[in-house]
Amino acid sequence: MASKIPRRLMALAPYTPAQKTLLQSLILIQTSSRSTRIPPPPASNARTYASSSGFTGFYKKLVKKSLESSKWEFNELDPNATINEAAPYVATARKLKETLAASPNSNTLDFAQIKALLIQLLTEIPAFSGIPDERLSSPFIKNQKLIENSFSVLLAADPSTKLPINLTSQDIELLYTLMVSKTGNIFSSLGKSPIIPNLFSLLHITRNQLESNKDLDLYLLYFKFLSAHKKETEAKKFLDWLIPIYHPERNQDLFNQFLYAVSQPFILKSCIPHLFSLSTTTTPSTEAILFALRQLSLLDSSVSLKFTKQLFKSYPELYSNAQVVSLVLKTLNKNIRQASEIKAFISKFLAHHSKDENSLASIDEEIKDPVERLEFHKSLALTLIKYNDSSVQTQKYLETDVGIPDIELYKTLAATEGLSAESIRTIFKDATAKGLEINNDIMHNALDILIIHKFNVAENFDALHDFFTTELNFESDIGTFESLILGSLNNSQKRQGTEAAIILFEKSIENGIQWNIGTEDQLETLDKLILALCQTMPDDVFKVFKSYQKVRMFVSSVGYQAQVALLKLFLSYNYVGDCERFLEDELGKETRDIAWDAEPELYQTLLEYALKSDNYKDAWLIYGLSEKYYDAPYASYEAVLRRFCALERPDAALLIFKNLRNKAKVSGSEPPSAEMYRLLFHEFGAVGYEDGIRELYIFLKMDISVDPSVPLLNSALNAFTELEDFSQAVELWSQIQQFPGGPDSESYTTVLKLCTHASIQDVEHMWETLQADNRITPSEENYRQYIVANCYHGFYARALEIARNMPMPPAKETIAGLYNWTMLQARKDDVREWAREAFPRKWAALETEDGALKTYLLDEENKNNDSEANLRRQAIRDMLEEKEREQIEREGRIVREALAAPKAA
Q: Does the keyword Repeat apply (predicted)?
């Protein structure tokens, strides 16, 4: 008698995959989700630091903390320092501490004395100058704990009014003003301290008691605090709150007052454009526009240019305002990187003046001051020359430039076709002979013109550089090479321009240019170089990598878009090891929880590679990096689980599931869904992953966030059926029967598969149960499993008869199952004849589909005189062993390909 079929070979239908060989589990990086919340804007009601009912216990703790928090009046950085007798705040601070410590056994404090000394201390302490070396030794920081504890006592509130018991509205106003003025530039823990926000909230509550119109001054002062502590988002929200109250767009003086208030270093980027976007009905004053443009020009050029476009779109009449246009041109002309945007601006400017051919000249005449008029004229002429506008209007305007040496130089450089290095030297010599002094601005403008007019600076660099340094005494700086590199990158021959830009970058290093001291815009030039390399030279990844390494000599990390381009390039070559090192260099070696939508392109690049890679080792490493650095969106997990199951790594899928489950416990994020459980039960059952099935089922029983359902229990039932764990399967079947709706079609398909292991009598009993269940109608899948069960026990003619009499047309898979599990040649012929006649298209499709039809038969010679049942088992075993061999060969091929693939640049 033949031995029992091994579990790994047992299957009840040909579409069920055999159990895959499991390789060693990998380790998933465990992360916990951390979130950073933005503090809310000032509340309408003040918070308090202490209750009003008794100070004994609170007072003792407070005074002890105050007295232990810092030294008295000595400089903590220098133990040998002496008391500065000339500093009055030292004595005041001592008196304030003595007052706080005067009567620790009393329930009352001398609040008037504490208030007076606190005001005196804040008045005497010098404002922080912002010098880094002064930060730790600042008198304010040395007394910060004392000040905070004094406020804790004074801000105790009356429960009925929510207002401080010991402070009047005038006291609150004075303390608020002193605190903002003295801490406005301190980047210390006060940025997180609630003192100033609480004082502001109290001011808002008592604003009716303030002098007339003084509340706005105090409100606007709050922007200084928000800027000092880099609260840009809060500043914009605060501006949104103020605008509907005061409507600055209706009054020019009020608008200017708001503009000055929001022009603080760390909030102006958002607040100035937002303020100007309030209304387009009245054009702001020229002074306000000039002030805003100058403020934003201190930032990166993209912010300034975006604001300029918004401004001129809202107020087209500004194209005729010489002062505004002059400032815009001066700002834009310094930045060749925005060449296309500048051309667009000039085009609109000229179109605005196209109706009158003398319009440009008339703008000059509007400027009364000769110096300002000349500056505007030179700015406009330079822009028109740089960007090669050849209209009649432009040429007529430039005819008036005769006699201006630098403009004449620019014209000559722009008008000479096919310039050589020698001809450029001649042009510069003629200009200097006429008295033109070559400064940095003129040299940068000249280089911009040469670049824009397609002169190959990179090829002629050595000759020109020698001439500029030896004969013109001009030393190249970052700005020089910035213009040269950007000009080369703008070459219409993209690869040629990129190669020239690389040469110029290397020349800058040879000439000792320290890019690390450059502006944000200048460092962005290096990012543009990397982007161009990735886009135009993806076939030379080694050259790109070497250039990236040279750029990294000057920056701690490259820009975001450059990071994305490099990551995509490395992954396109499957250099996953290099990607790991690259991300460690750029993002750090420590685990982080960056919000995925804060850097969506980086995260999506990693995720998409993991979801598309056919090599599970590569997919696992890259997915691990995405989990290491990013707080992944919940929606991504199901796709990742599905992918690793498809890569035949159910162990990896289980680890990812456990990671999501642990993450939900730690951070309160969304736990695994019922759909994820169903997916994993199905996939684990398909490959016979016993440990995974059992652990997943334990999680399900413990998971209070997932409601049990028939579809969910069906997936678990199927998984345990694949394991042939009959007791667990029967238990699940009993649970399913207890649901109000009872088992569904999928439940019966699985339990029919389970009954097939027992006997044909159990199969018949379950089929009768299904037919008697008036809640459902047997499905095509039910019939398919019933047909296979009959074939499994040798009832081939009966199985064919069931197929002939199905109430619905059998699917192609059902026909294949009937044919494959029929093990006698004569009966196979009957199935073939029936299928060809009844369903010719489906049969033809099966015949052309590779591996769809099997030819295994019973051993008709039967030399060992086995029973028919044993012969049938042997035929089934042979068929399943072929599938097992195919699976093992596929796994072996995957592993061999993984080991053979190169993984480093």
A: yes
